[in-house]
Write a structure and sequence with these properties.
single chain; 694 residues; alpha+beta; eight-stranded parallel beta barrel; 13 helices; 35 strands
Length: 694
């Protein structure tokens, strides 16, 4: 007997089936099926043939594939009993609880006394399916691996895209061809990681940014993950995500995965991106003051580093405010004896040498300039050279002889006394000063992965959020080392990278937009000479790259020439004029024919207006620019387009292009199929094309 269930929205159908009372499997996931579709027939037509050298029947690729059923690939669960004996679960369906936009599957293994639960929640507006898996037992068990509900990957795909990176080089896309065997990625650094962002895209054949079918996945957990993309000997493919293996260091009667967010798109990678962007912004993030415009951000780190001096900081604050900044963030160096990165982490008391009257005078001055005030913490870390480490060396995570990172260790966040101490120190500062923003940093990997560490960090942030609901938190971890939906359910901004190099940022922002909207993605105008790359870039390019996301500055404004200050103030004013609609805009990656062009179209949700940022990352292979085709416009509608920065055309742009003279009106069909030919430009420059529907 076959039992079937389905989840539907206007974009997709997800169908599950259980045969012979076994754990269900996903038998269909893709474009919507008619309401009357016979799912049993779908199950039967999808059954693989068998031939020589095969079993007489192909084992199910179930939500939790079981080795006990001769499944030939990676199992969805690896667990041991109290005495260390490996268990080989054999689940049988116990029941399915259905609700309008979700369902819960319950399976039991009576012999091993285990219960497996898979939950699916489909958001009909964002089209994201959030799914979790849980295991429970009547005695503590040792967990090695538990996958979130396992999904099939399409067989009509040639490759997969995942994300690697490094410090100052996050969100680098990797394309890997499907082949028999396994693509196995695991992050064991104890945080989300620059190196292994927990995301995967499976584009079907001929899919691009703007067309074709694609499937995308994101595991919303901040403590390290494992990804398995496997092609079985029979040709089927499976996708598994879960915590990194052996992260549960203590036996327990219950285990649960983080949510796995999954998306199906029929209009290319952009369909996946828009779903993730909307879901994160509108469902995952809890905003401190919903509806408040995102403030232009100033961070003093690359201006002063550890050399805090009140008159200098006041001067910088005055200049930042004149440029348009609305928030001033005091970075590392305000506490303990913190003159470099070798001491004082975890002390979290204002340095009386630098601030003899406390932080009040600086905060009052910043407020007097019309800006709010934010401050830097790195709560989960401790320097051996600190008062707290000398008093509580047992609070540090890992062995005494461990290799340090940035001259620091991690605190053991699983200890309640550690969390209580950190809460007391942080809350004291928040209670006595009008602080509305925390830059929460995490500058080293952990000595070993441990899920309890992540849960402890979450608990501390949750406690502070509950008691200080108006304080916004930015997740920073040496830049982009902790970016995921798990941390973003507790924070409102991420620092994408410690690199303020606009050329590198252009590429990173473009790739990160598959998962993250503009509203949460911090992007700052850095110094003329980038401190991490040594590259010298013009102010206009730096400013427009920052204006693509949540805009800010992170340089010494005293270095600006009059011309640079005018350009920065102008771009900042433009961003403020447009930030309200751009907050909820969809970021659409454009398929540029020129490989040196990185272009995106940010479009209002109702399609009434858009802005195209067309960045030039290098020298074009051809002499004249190729047309850039737009996307997601109404074919019959009229659009007025204008080049916002047309005055920036160089003397080598000698043609009589209409865009240089003023607005043009074209149909959506013309803009999508013919495209727009922009003026010639140097590398490391940006064209900004504004459009509105008439």
């Amino acid at each position: 007997m076959t039992q079937c269930w389905r989840l539907d929205d206007e974009r997709q159908t997800l169908a599950l089936a259980s045969s012979g009372g076994r754990c269900p499997q996903v038998v269909y996931w893709g474009a919507p099926l008619p309401a009357g579709e016979d799912l049993t027939a779908i199950t039967r037509i999808s059954t693989l043939d068998v031939t020589g050298g095969m079993l007489d029947e192909n084992p199910d690729l179930s939500l939790c594939p079981e080795a006990s059923r001769t499944f030939p690939g990676q199992p969805g669960l690896i667990v041991r009993d109290q005495d260390g004996t490996p268990l080989l679960p054999k689940f049988h369906l116990d029941g399915v609880e259905e609700r309008p936009d979700g369902l819960t599957v319950i399976c039991k293994d009576q012999g091993n006394r285990l219960t497996y639960t898979a939950d699916f929640a489909l958001d009909p507006e964002t089209h994201v399916i959030a799914m979790t898996a849980a295991l429970s037992a009547d005695r503590p068990l040792h967990l090695h691996w538990l996958a979130a509900p396992v999904l099939p990957a399409p067989q009509h795909a040639n490759d997969m895209i995942d994300f690697a990176g490094r410090w100052c080089g996050e969100f680098q896309m990797n394309r890997t061809a499907w082949s028999p065997g396994i693509r196995y990625r695991e992050n064991r650094t104890g945080r989300t990681g620059h190196e292994h962002f927990p995301g995967l895209i499976v584009p079907c054949q001929a899919a691009t940014n703007t067309s074709g079918e694609a499937f995308a996945f994101h595991y919303g957990w901040s403590g390290g993950h494992r990804m398995i993309a496997e092609e079985l000997p029979d040709g089927r493919r499976q996708i598994q995500f879960g915590h990194a293996a052996r992260m549960e260091t203590s036996p327990s009667t219950e285990f649960r995965t983080a949510p796995l967010y999954a998306v199906y798109s029929s209009d290319g990678l952009n369909g996946c991106a828009v779903s993730f962007q909307r879901h994160l912004r509108d469902r995952v993030v809890t905003w401190t003051k919903p509806g408040r415009p995102r403030p232009v951000h100033y961070n003093c780190w690359e201006a002063v580093y550890f050399a805090h001096d009140l008159p200098v900081l006041k001067d910088i604050a005055t200049r930042a405010a004149k440029l348009g900044a609305e928030r001033f963030v005091l970075d590392d160096g305000w506490f303990g004896q913190r003159d470099d990165d070798t001491s004082s982490l975890s002390d979290w008391e204002v340095d009386p040498r630098k601030y003899p009257d406390g932080l009040g005078p600086l905060i009052d001055y910043v407020h007097g300039q019309g800006m709010s005030f934010g401050i830097w913490f790195e709560p989960e870390m401790i320097n051996p050279n600190s008062n707290i480490h000398r008093a509580h060396p047992d609070w540090a995570l890992g062995s005494e002889d461990q290799v340090l990172g940035r001259q620091q260790k991690a605190l053991n966040m699983a200890l309640p006394e550690v969390r209580d101490f950190l809460y007391e120190r942080i809350s004291k500062l928040l209670s006595t000063h009008p602080i509305d923003y925390i830059k929460w940093d995490h500058n080293r990997v952990l000595p070993m992965p441990d899920a309890a560490q992540t849960r402890g960090s979450y608990a501390l942030i949750d406690r502070l959020r509950a008691d200080f609901p108006d304080v916004e938190i930015e997740s920073c971890a040496s830049g982009g080392g902790r970016i995921d939906f798990g941390i973003l359910s507790r924070t409102q901004r991420v620092w994408l990278s410690d690199s303020n190099d606009a050329l590198e940022r252009l590429k990173m922002q473009h790739n990160a937009s598959i998962f993250m909207p503009s509203a949460v993605t911090g992007s700052h105008v850095g110094p003329r000479k980038c401190h991490t790359s040594g590259r010298v870039l013009g102010i206009e390019f730096r400013a427009w790259v920052a204006a693509q996301r949540h805009m800010g500055f992170e340089m010494d404004p005293r270095e600006l020439t009059d011309h640079e200050a005018r350009v920065l103030a102008d771009v900042t004013a433009w961003w403020k004029e447009n930030r309200d609609w751009m907050y909820a805009a969809d970021i659409l990656r454009l398929d540029a024919s020129d490989p040196s062009v990185i272009a995106e179209q940010q479009q209002a949700r109702d399609g009434s207006r858009f802005v195209v940022f067309s960045g030039k990352s290098g020298t074009s292979p051809q002499i004249a620019p190729r047309p850039l085709r737009l996307t997601r416009l109404e074919p019959d509608a009229q659009y007025e387009i204008s080049l916002r920065n047309r005055a920036s055309a160089t003397v080598l742009s000698r043609g009589n292009l209409a865009l240089k003279d003023g607005p043009l009106t074209l149909t959506g069909a013309a803009l999508m199929h013919n495209g727009v030919t922009l003026p010639w430009s140097f590398p490391e420059s940006m064209w900004v094309l504004e459009g509105k529907r008439l």
